Every structure is written in C-alpha cells, then in structure tokens.
Amino acid sequence: MIRVVLVDDQMLVRSGIRGLLDLTHDIRVVAEAANGDEAVGVIAQAQADVLLLDVRMPQCSGIELLRRQQGLLPPTILLTTFDDDEALFEGMRAGARGFLLKDISLERLADGIRSVAAGATLFRPGLTERTRAAYEQASGLAAPASGGARLTARETEILALMAAGLNNAEIGAALGPSEGTIKNHVSNILAKLVVRDRVRAVLRGLELGYI
C-alpha cells in the first residue's frame, strides 16, 4: 500500500482527492494538513511514501515548505489548479519529484503517485520556449552550455523520457534498446551532466536547454 500525505488549504479539495484515491486498490491518504506549517508535524508522524502538496497556500506555501524542509520530505508531487510555469521550475529547484494539475483524471493521478513512489519523476518531457526562457533568466543560465561533455541525440531523447517519469524498462520499450543499454545511457548522462541522480539530471538538462 502506498501511503500518501495530502496538504491543501481547501477542505473540499482534500476530501475530493482522498475520496478518489480510496477507489484505488493500492493508494491511501493516511494524513492531511491545511498548510505547510501544519504539514511538518503531520509528515513526521505519517511515514508517508508520497507527499501531495498544494503549490499555493496561506501561512506557508508548498514551495516554501519544500525549501525549508529540503531533503527531509517524502517524494513530493506539487498540485496546482493552473499550469504555472514559474511554480514548475521553482518546485523542481526546491526538490519536487513531480507536478500535476488538480483537474487530471484519477487514473493519471494514481499512476503519477505510483511512479513517484517507485522513484520516477513527473515533469513534462519538454517545456515551451516561453517557459525555458523564463527558467534560464531566473537561473542566470544559457542553453546549451559550451564546452564540456555534450549529450548525444539519443542521450537527449532518453533524458526527455526521464523527465516524463519513465523508468529504464519503459524507456527501453519506447525506444527499442534493452533495459541494460538504457541503464548505460543513463549512467553516461549522469556523468556528463555531473549529477548523482535522475532528478538532478532532469534539472540540469532543463538548465542547459536539452529538454
């Protein structure tokens, strides 16, 4: 069973999401909070596998909670009522593992929770030029960087699928190579981007304009 903590300032939203997830066979909301400050104590006691966190809340927003508790929270999916590009990359920089709109289907929400619980990410495989430009301006970065080891076309393709939340087996099924070959490509991507895990690879790929 995947244990979820749900943090949202609107009671009706929490009730609706909890009710939907109760329809699944393997996901349960085990604790709730109405803001980031309240969530700290709740999360510490819940032993959750995944945190569903509203982006914008009074007192302490989801982004602020991520910043304050960076590295201490369960794998986190940010929830919002609109496609907020700024919140997307701010959340990624603060350590979020996924980003979903509240109006998605139960199937996609449940699949997203399962993916993040298994160690995947849930970021869009590509950003609009407007989003990318805003991210680069906020980060003070240009893309792609000159010099250093550059990703090949296949590595860039794999990185985009990593950003979409696919694991090695799913990437292999999508592209054709064996899971072992994909694993080698992922290792090369991490080495070239000088990062230690898939989430940081996605962030670095966004910074450098590969995705």
TrEMBL record:
Give the 4-aspartylphosphate positions (modified residues): 54
Enumerate the CDD domains for this protein: LuxR_C_like (cd06170), REC_NarL-like (cd17535)
**Keywords of this entry:** DNA-binding, Phosphoprotein, Transcription, Transcription regulation
Indicate the segments forming the HTH luxR-type domain, all copies. Answer: 144-209
Where does the Response regulatory domain start and stop, copy by copy? 3-117
PANTHER family according to UniProt: TRANSCRIPTIONAL REGULATORY PROTEIN NARL-RELATED, TWO-COMPONENT RESPONSE REGULATOR
- This one is known as Response regulator transcription factor
Its taxonomic placement starts with: Bacteria, Pseudomonadati, Pseudomonadota, Betaproteobacteria, Burkholderiales
